[in-house]
């Protein structure tokens, strides 16, 4: 499979944000390294880590998938209002081939990233 430049740049963006050293703190142990790394890369407020973990655990339920989408929408809205040094802010400001990502694009990318 050959990635087009737009996809290649997005892949590199994700890889750079998600490549972090393993943590052995309590949150990393409880959440697991993957979800803990995602929470850090997305700059999810620590108070919401457990909420996100419960949503991920319930993804077999269609309501949980919709709730995860709503959770992501709130994170994106927060970053639109106050950008930070995180993957969500990177996606908001990302421009590929002269076009930025829409809110729906960002939601789909992040839900897929978190869910799978």
Topology:
Blueprint: H1 5-18, H2 26-31, H3 33-42, H4 49-57, H5 62-81, H6 87-93, E1 95-96, E2 99-100, H7 103-115
Antiparallel strand pairs: 1-2
Helix pairs in contact: 5-7
GO molecular function, one term: monooxygenase activity
InterPro entries: Cyt_P450_sf
Walkthrough of the structure:
The chain is mainly alpha-helical and 116 residues long. The chain has a single domain, classed as Cytochrome p450, CATH 1.10.630. It is 68% helix and 3% strand. It has seven helices and two strands. It has helices at 5-18, 26-31, 33-42, 49-57, 62-81, 87-93, 103-115, and strands at 95-96, 99-100. The protein has a two-stranded antiparallel sheet with strand order 1-2. Strand 1 and strand 2 (99-100) form a beta hairpin. Helix 5 crosses helix 7 (103-115). It is globular, with a radius of gyration of 14 Å. The model has no long low-confidence stretch (mean pLDDT 85).
Keywords summarizing the entry:
116 residues, Cytochrome p450, mainly alpha
């Amino acid at each position: 499979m050959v990635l087009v430049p737009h996809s290649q740049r997005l892949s590199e963006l994700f890889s750079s944000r998600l490549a972090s050293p393993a943590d052995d703190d309590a949150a990393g142990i409880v959440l697991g390294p993957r979800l803990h790394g995602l929470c850090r890369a997305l700059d999810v407020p620590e108070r919401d880590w457990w909420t996100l973990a419960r949503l991920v655990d319930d993804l077999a339920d269609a309501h949980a998938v919709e709730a995860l989408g709503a959770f992501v929408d709130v994170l994106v809205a927060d970053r639109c209002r106050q950008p930070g040094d995180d993957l969500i802010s990177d996606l908001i400001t990302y421009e590929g081939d002269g076009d930025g990502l829409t809110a729906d694009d960002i939601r789909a990318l992040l839900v897929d990233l978190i869910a799978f």
